[in-house]
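Project outcomes to date are best conveyed with an example. Our students and postdoctoral researchers have been running inverse folding experiments weekly, and each run begins with a structure described purely in C-alpha coordinates. The record below, which covers 280 residues, was selected by the lab manager from last quarter's runs and is presented without edits.
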Protein backbone atom coordinates (compact mmCIF):
# COMPACT_ATOMS: atom_id res chain seq x y z
CA UNK A 1 0.00 0.00 0.00
CA UNK A 2 1.27 3.43 -0.88
CA UNK A 3 2.05 5.35 2.22
CA UNK A 4 1.35 9.06 2.18
CA UNK A 5 3.65 11.62 3.73
CA UNK A 6 3.02 12.29 7.41
CA UNK A 7 4.24 15.47 9.03
CA UNK A 8 4.04 16.38 12.68
CA UNK A 9 1.96 19.49 13.27
CA UNK A 10 4.58 20.66 15.75
CA UNK A 11 6.96 21.33 12.88
CA UNK A 12 5.03 24.45 11.92
CA UNK A 13 5.30 25.99 15.40
CA UNK A 14 9.00 27.02 15.30
CA UNK A 15 8.45 28.58 11.89
CA UNK A 16 5.66 30.74 13.29
CA UNK A 17 7.60 31.66 16.43
CA UNK A 18 10.76 32.45 14.48
CA UNK A 19 9.24 35.19 12.33
CA UNK A 20 10.31 38.08 14.55
CA UNK A 21 10.86 41.51 13.05
CA UNK A 22 13.70 43.85 13.86
CA UNK A 23 13.21 46.90 16.08
CA UNK A 24 11.98 49.87 14.08
CA UNK A 25 14.55 52.66 14.27
CA UNK A 26 12.69 55.10 12.03
CA UNK A 27 11.29 56.99 15.03
CA UNK A 28 14.81 57.98 16.08
CA UNK A 29 15.71 59.48 12.69
CA UNK A 30 15.51 63.29 12.17
CA UNK A 31 12.22 64.61 10.87
CA UNK A 32 13.90 65.93 7.71
CA UNK A 33 15.28 62.47 6.90
CA UNK A 34 11.83 60.97 7.32
CA UNK A 35 10.40 63.48 4.87
CA UNK A 36 12.97 62.51 2.24
CA UNK A 37 12.25 58.76 2.55
CA UNK A 38 9.35 57.26 0.54
CA UNK A 39 6.52 55.91 2.69
CA UNK A 40 5.54 52.22 2.72
CA UNK A 41 2.45 52.78 0.61
CA UNK A 42 4.49 54.46 -2.13
CA UNK A 43 7.07 51.64 -2.08
CA UNK A 44 4.28 49.09 -2.39
CA UNK A 45 2.85 50.99 -5.36
CA UNK A 46 6.25 51.03 -7.06
CA UNK A 47 6.95 47.34 -6.39
CA UNK A 48 6.97 45.12 -9.49
CA UNK A 49 3.70 43.22 -9.94
CA UNK A 50 3.61 39.52 -9.12
CA UNK A 51 3.85 37.24 -12.12
CA UNK A 52 0.51 36.00 -13.46
CA UNK A 53 -0.77 32.55 -12.53
CA UNK A 54 0.58 29.67 -14.55
CA UNK A 55 -1.61 28.00 -17.15
CA UNK A 56 -1.25 24.26 -16.68
CA UNK A 57 -2.95 23.07 -19.86
CA UNK A 58 0.10 23.36 -22.20
CA UNK A 59 1.91 20.90 -19.90
CA UNK A 60 -1.10 18.60 -19.43
CA UNK A 61 -2.34 18.43 -23.03
CA UNK A 62 0.46 16.16 -24.36
CA UNK A 63 -0.32 13.64 -21.59
CA UNK A 64 -4.07 13.26 -22.21
CA UNK A 65 -4.82 14.31 -25.81
CA UNK A 66 -5.79 11.46 -28.12
CA UNK A 67 -8.58 9.15 -29.23
CA UNK A 68 -9.41 6.29 -26.88
CA UNK A 69 -11.42 3.65 -28.71
CA UNK A 70 -12.50 0.35 -27.23
CA UNK A 71 -15.31 -1.61 -25.62
CA UNK A 72 -17.60 0.94 -23.99
CA UNK A 73 -20.53 1.15 -21.62
CA UNK A 74 -22.86 4.10 -22.20
CA UNK A 75 -24.97 5.48 -19.35
CA UNK A 76 -27.77 6.05 -18.50
CA UNK A 77 -28.85 3.82 -21.41
CA UNK A 78 -26.80 0.88 -20.02
CA UNK A 79 -25.74 0.16 -23.59
CA UNK A 80 -22.62 -1.92 -24.34
CA UNK A 81 -21.09 -0.89 -27.63
CA UNK A 82 -17.93 0.03 -29.43
CA UNK A 83 -17.12 3.68 -28.96
CA UNK A 84 -14.43 6.26 -28.40
CA UNK A 85 -13.50 9.26 -26.29
CA UNK A 86 -11.60 12.03 -28.07
CA UNK A 87 -9.53 14.77 -26.42
CA UNK A 88 -8.14 17.41 -28.76
CA UNK A 89 -4.93 19.33 -28.13
CA UNK A 90 -6.98 22.43 -27.26
CA UNK A 91 -8.82 20.51 -24.52
CA UNK A 92 -12.10 19.90 -26.30
CA UNK A 93 -13.37 16.45 -25.24
CA UNK A 94 -16.28 14.54 -26.76
CA UNK A 95 -17.91 11.12 -26.54
CA UNK A 96 -21.48 9.81 -27.07
CA UNK A 97 -23.17 13.18 -26.82
CA UNK A 98 -20.87 14.45 -24.05
CA UNK A 99 -18.89 17.62 -24.74
CA UNK A 100 -16.50 19.49 -22.48
CA UNK A 101 -13.45 21.74 -22.42
CA UNK A 102 -10.80 20.05 -20.28
CA UNK A 103 -8.45 23.03 -20.63
CA UNK A 104 -10.72 24.71 -18.05
CA UNK A 105 -10.27 21.93 -15.50
CA UNK A 106 -10.25 23.22 -11.94
CA UNK A 107 -8.64 20.09 -10.50
CA UNK A 108 -6.03 17.81 -12.09
CA UNK A 109 -4.45 14.76 -10.48
CA UNK A 110 -1.60 12.84 -12.11
CA UNK A 111 0.12 9.79 -10.64
CA UNK A 112 2.63 7.17 -11.73
CA UNK A 113 4.06 4.32 -9.68
CA UNK A 114 6.17 1.24 -10.19
CA UNK A 115 4.24 -2.04 -10.12
CA UNK A 116 5.54 -5.10 -8.27
CA UNK A 117 5.41 -7.24 -11.40
CA UNK A 118 7.33 -4.72 -13.48
CA UNK A 119 6.27 -1.74 -15.54
CA UNK A 120 4.33 1.27 -14.31
CA UNK A 121 0.73 2.27 -13.65
CA UNK A 122 -0.27 5.84 -14.43
CA UNK A 123 -3.51 7.75 -13.99
CA UNK A 124 -4.80 11.17 -15.02
CA UNK A 125 -7.98 12.64 -13.52
CA UNK A 126 -9.42 15.98 -14.60
CA UNK A 127 -12.50 17.63 -13.11
CA UNK A 128 -14.28 20.64 -14.54
CA UNK A 129 -17.01 22.61 -12.82
CA UNK A 130 -19.55 24.23 -15.16
CA UNK A 131 -22.77 26.15 -14.59
CA UNK A 132 -25.03 23.18 -15.24
CA UNK A 133 -22.99 20.08 -14.35
CA UNK A 134 -19.68 18.61 -13.35
CA UNK A 135 -17.40 16.98 -15.90
CA UNK A 136 -15.08 14.13 -14.92
CA UNK A 137 -12.41 12.66 -17.22
CA UNK A 138 -10.04 9.84 -16.34
CA UNK A 139 -7.33 7.77 -18.01
CA UNK A 140 -5.86 4.61 -16.45
CA UNK A 141 -2.69 3.29 -18.05
CA UNK A 142 -1.60 -0.18 -16.94
CA UNK A 143 1.65 -2.02 -17.67
CA UNK A 144 -0.37 -4.10 -20.17
CA UNK A 145 -2.11 -1.93 -22.79
CA UNK A 146 -5.12 -4.26 -23.03
CA UNK A 147 -6.06 -3.21 -19.49
CA UNK A 148 -6.07 0.53 -20.21
CA UNK A 149 -9.31 2.45 -19.55
CA UNK A 150 -10.83 5.84 -20.34
CA UNK A 151 -13.91 7.54 -18.94
CA UNK A 152 -15.80 10.77 -19.68
CA UNK A 153 -18.76 11.84 -17.55
CA UNK A 154 -21.01 14.88 -17.58
CA UNK A 155 -24.04 14.99 -15.36
CA UNK A 156 -25.94 11.72 -15.82
CA UNK A 157 -24.27 10.86 -19.11
CA UNK A 158 -21.17 8.69 -19.09
CA UNK A 159 -19.05 6.68 -21.49
CA UNK A 160 -16.64 4.22 -19.92
CA UNK A 161 -14.27 2.36 -22.26
CA UNK A 162 -11.81 -0.48 -21.71
CA UNK A 163 -9.07 -1.99 -23.88
CA UNK A 164 -8.47 1.43 -25.46
CA UNK A 165 -4.91 0.76 -26.63
CA UNK A 166 -1.55 2.16 -25.60
CA UNK A 167 -1.16 5.33 -23.53
CA UNK A 168 2.55 5.87 -23.95
CA UNK A 169 2.14 9.63 -23.79
CA UNK A 170 0.97 9.23 -20.18
CA UNK A 171 2.87 6.20 -18.93
CA UNK A 172 6.13 5.89 -20.88
CA UNK A 173 7.97 8.71 -19.11
CA UNK A 174 8.29 9.65 -15.43
CA UNK A 175 6.10 12.55 -14.35
CA UNK A 176 9.08 14.75 -13.51
CA UNK A 177 10.18 14.50 -17.15
CA UNK A 178 6.71 15.21 -18.54
CA UNK A 179 6.22 18.16 -16.17
CA UNK A 180 9.78 19.50 -16.21
CA UNK A 181 8.72 22.95 -17.44
CA UNK A 182 6.50 23.32 -14.38
CA UNK A 183 8.76 21.65 -11.82
CA UNK A 184 12.21 23.01 -12.59
CA UNK A 185 12.84 25.91 -10.22
CA UNK A 186 15.84 28.11 -9.57
CA UNK A 187 17.50 27.80 -6.18
CA UNK A 188 15.68 29.38 -3.25
CA UNK A 189 16.79 30.03 0.31
CA UNK A 190 14.42 28.44 2.81
CA UNK A 191 14.23 28.19 6.58
CA UNK A 192 14.03 24.56 7.65
CA UNK A 193 12.95 22.82 10.84
CA UNK A 194 13.12 19.09 11.51
CA UNK A 195 12.37 16.47 14.12
CA UNK A 196 16.12 16.08 14.52
CA UNK A 197 16.20 19.48 16.28
CA UNK A 198 12.96 21.43 16.66
CA UNK A 199 14.76 24.46 18.11
CA UNK A 200 17.04 24.96 15.13
CA UNK A 201 16.01 26.65 11.88
CA UNK A 202 18.96 26.38 9.50
CA UNK A 203 18.76 28.13 6.14
CA UNK A 204 19.13 25.80 3.19
CA UNK A 205 19.11 26.13 -0.56
CA UNK A 206 16.33 24.18 -2.30
CA UNK A 207 16.39 23.64 -6.06
CA UNK A 208 14.72 21.47 -8.71
CA UNK A 209 16.64 21.05 -11.95
CA UNK A 210 17.30 18.30 -14.50
CA UNK A 211 15.56 15.55 -12.55
CA UNK A 212 17.39 16.32 -9.30
CA UNK A 213 15.93 17.91 -6.16
CA UNK A 214 18.52 19.49 -3.88
CA UNK A 215 17.82 20.32 -0.24
CA UNK A 216 20.96 21.69 1.37
CA UNK A 217 23.67 19.06 0.87
CA UNK A 218 21.25 16.24 0.08
CA UNK A 219 20.27 15.35 -3.49
CA UNK A 220 17.25 13.32 -4.65
CA UNK A 221 17.52 11.55 -8.02
CA UNK A 222 13.96 11.59 -9.34
CA UNK A 223 14.59 8.82 -11.87
CA UNK A 224 14.81 6.49 -8.85
CA UNK A 225 11.33 7.41 -7.59
CA UNK A 226 8.91 4.52 -7.16
CA UNK A 227 5.96 6.91 -6.83
CA UNK A 228 5.19 10.36 -8.25
CA UNK A 229 2.03 12.43 -7.96
CA UNK A 230 1.13 15.93 -9.08
CA UNK A 231 -1.96 17.82 -7.93
CA UNK A 232 -2.86 20.95 -9.87
CA UNK A 233 -5.76 23.25 -9.14
CA UNK A 234 -6.69 26.39 -11.06
CA UNK A 235 -3.69 28.61 -11.69
CA UNK A 236 -4.33 30.97 -8.78
CA UNK A 237 -3.85 28.16 -6.25
CA UNK A 238 -0.63 26.65 -7.54
CA UNK A 239 0.25 22.96 -7.44
CA UNK A 240 2.11 20.26 -5.55
CA UNK A 241 4.45 17.49 -6.66
CA UNK A 242 5.24 14.54 -4.42
CA UNK A 243 7.79 11.79 -4.96
CA UNK A 244 8.91 8.76 -2.99
CA UNK A 245 12.27 7.10 -3.56
CA UNK A 246 12.23 5.10 -0.31
CA UNK A 247 10.82 5.39 3.20
CA UNK A 248 13.82 7.58 4.05
CA UNK A 249 13.59 9.80 0.98
CA UNK A 250 10.26 11.37 0.07
CA UNK A 251 9.27 14.98 -0.40
CA UNK A 252 6.25 17.11 -1.17
CA UNK A 253 7.13 20.25 -3.16
CA UNK A 254 4.65 23.13 -3.18
CA UNK A 255 4.48 25.86 -5.82
CA UNK A 256 2.41 29.04 -5.70
CA UNK A 257 0.11 30.36 -8.43
CA UNK A 258 2.88 32.10 -10.41
CA UNK A 259 4.81 28.81 -10.35
CA UNK A 260 7.48 29.61 -7.76
CA UNK A 261 8.68 26.89 -5.39
CA UNK A 262 7.65 27.93 -1.85
CA UNK A 263 8.12 24.85 0.35
CA UNK A 264 9.60 21.37 0.57
CA UNK A 265 8.38 19.04 3.26
CA UNK A 266 8.77 15.36 3.98
CA UNK A 267 11.50 12.91 4.92
CA UNK A 268 15.23 13.05 4.23
CA UNK A 269 18.04 10.80 5.38
CA UNK A 270 19.79 13.71 7.09
CA UNK A 271 16.93 15.31 9.01
CA UNK A 272 14.19 12.71 9.31
CA UNK A 273 10.85 14.55 8.96
CA UNK A 274 11.15 18.25 8.17
CA UNK A 275 9.59 21.37 6.66
CA UNK A 276 11.41 24.00 4.62
CA UNK A 277 9.58 27.19 3.66
CA UNK A 278 10.37 30.50 2.03
CA UNK A 279 10.17 33.37 4.49
CA UNK A 280 7.76 36.20 3.86
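After processing, the design step wrote out the following sequence:
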Amino acid sequence: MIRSLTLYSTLALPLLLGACGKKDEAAEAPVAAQADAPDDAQQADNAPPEAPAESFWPAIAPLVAGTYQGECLQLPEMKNQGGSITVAANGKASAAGIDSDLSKSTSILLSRHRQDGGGHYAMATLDTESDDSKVHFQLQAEAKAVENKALLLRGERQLSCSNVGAMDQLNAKPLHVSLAKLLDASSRKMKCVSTANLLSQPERTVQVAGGVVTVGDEKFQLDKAELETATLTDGSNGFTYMFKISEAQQLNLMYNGPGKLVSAMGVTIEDKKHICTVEG
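The chain has seven helices and 18 strands. Helices lie at 12-17, 31-36, 40-46, 57-64, 168-171, 175-178, 180-183. The training component of this project remains on track.
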